[in-house]
Amino acid sequence: MFPAADEYDIDIQFSESDVEPLLSVTPDDVEAAPALTFSRNIFLPLTTACRYTCTYCTYYDVPGQASLMSPEQVRQQLQLGADAGCTEALFTFGDKPDARYTEIHDQLDEWGHDSIVDYLYEVCEVALEEGLLPHSNPGDLEESEFERLREVNASMGVMLETTADVAAHSGNRRKTPGQRLNTIRAAGRARVPFTTGILVGIGEDWYDRAESLLAIRELHERYGHIQEVIVQNVVPNERSDYESPSLETMRRVVAMARVCLPEEISVQVPPNLAPARDLLDCGIDDLGGVSPVTDDYINPDYKWPALQELHDIADEAGVPLGERLPVYDRFLPDSPTQDGEWMLPSIRAALTADDEAGRRYRSLIEKW
């Protein structure tokens, strides 16, 4: 059904009766959420290298120009985040960068690492030492890589973006829907609390949006691992002239997501990219990770709103705003709805530690 689905043995099937109802959804079909949440994070772009060359992306740098954060730089940033009261260390980088960038591979080798995933494991350990819970977005991974990284991550994520074959992903190096769905499935099999999402305005149509949300729903129904789905609008930047989708389009897509997805999955919009105030009545209940100290390195032209602005958004809607951890409550060790073991010893130890960070985590859990 989806491009490259056969290559990755993706078996997700829909009927017209599944898709058609979503195409007629409007904001009138949903209710505003009774509360909003956000996560206070520090953003660490571990490397700006990526094997893909998506036409809308400003994050990646070409070979010879890509950066790689050193262990010292990582620790300094983590300490900055801890001092600012952050609970989440957001690690992000492009897909399999050391497979394309010789300099990145050589530097990792000099530091004693076989791969960027190996290095990510190390810096996640550093994050835990500094009192922050890692949430990593490392692109497409295999199940074995998720099984290893879950030892040191509270949660992880990758954007599905779309199940459609769009020109935005064209070129010799391109991501495919089959590969992305395989990654989301692998995270579920490895029991990783997971964030994913769709990207609106890169050439997909309404049918594609409905199919993308249904694919996410089906994988969650199998594995129970999706904690939030981001509905993100594309924005113009120095590399592309994609027009941001209209407010009407975003309102419909957000409402479609809320109707399609199970109640336990949060629907999120990034407040530095989307008009969150105008989407509150469409079913969003989360404003994502917001950093008080670092930029949004994936969308550097679009600064995070101040935390006070988030409170203003919630106040205007007449709902409470709560700070949350990067892993949702239902995946925590003492959750009455937890199905099986999600938290491994290192994360469990961080959440239960009798230190400042552990007390901060528990205060957020108890408060919210």
Automatic annotation (TrEMBL):
EC number: 4.3.1.32
InterPro entries associated with the record: Aldolase_TIM (IPR013785), CofG_family (IPR019939), Elp3/MiaA/NifB-like_rSAM (IPR006638), F420 (IPR034405), rSAM (IPR007197), rSAM_sf (IPR058240)
TM spans (from-to): none
Cofactor requirement: [4Fe-4S] cluster
Domain Radical SAM core: 36-272
Top-rank EC class of the record's enzyme: lyase
Pfam family, one: Radical_SAM
Catalysed reactions, as listed in the record: 5-amino-5-(4-hydroxybenzyl)-6-(D-ribitylimino)-5,6-dihydrouracil + S-adenosyl-L-methionine = 7,8-didemethyl-8-hydroxy-5-deazariboflavin + 5'-deoxyadenosine + L-methionine + NH4(+) + H(+)
Cofactor annotation comment: Binds 1 [4Fe-4S] cluster. The cluster is coordinated with 3 cysteines and an exchangeable S-adenosyl-L-methionine.
PROSITE patterns: RADICAL_SAM
UniProt keyword list: 4Fe-4S, Iron, Iron-sulfur, Lyase, Metal-binding, S-adenosyl-L-methionine
Biological or metabolic pathway of the protein: Cofactor biosynthesis; coenzyme F0 biosynthesis
Residues that, per the record, bind [4Fe-4S] cluster: 50, 54, 57
GO molecular function: 4 iron, 4 sulfur cluster binding; 7,8-didemethyl-8-hydroxy-5-deazariboflavin synthase activity; iron ion binding; transferase activity, transferring alkyl or aryl (other than methyl) groups
Keyword S-adenosyl-L-methionine attributed: yes
Xref: SUPFAM superfamilies: Radical SAM enzymes
Assembly and oligomerization: The FO synthase complex consists of two subunits, CofG and CofH.
Similarity annotation: Belongs to the radical SAM superfamily. CofG family.
HAMAP family: FO_synth_sub1
Reported function: Catalyzes the radical-mediated synthesis of 7,8-didemethyl-8-hydroxy-5-deazariboflavin (FO) from 5-amino-5-(4-hydroxybenzyl)-6-(D-ribitylimino)-5,6-dihydrouracil.
Record protein name field: 7,8-didemethyl-8-hydroxy-5-deazariboflavin synthase
Species for this entry: Halogranum salarium B-1
Gene that encodes it: cofG
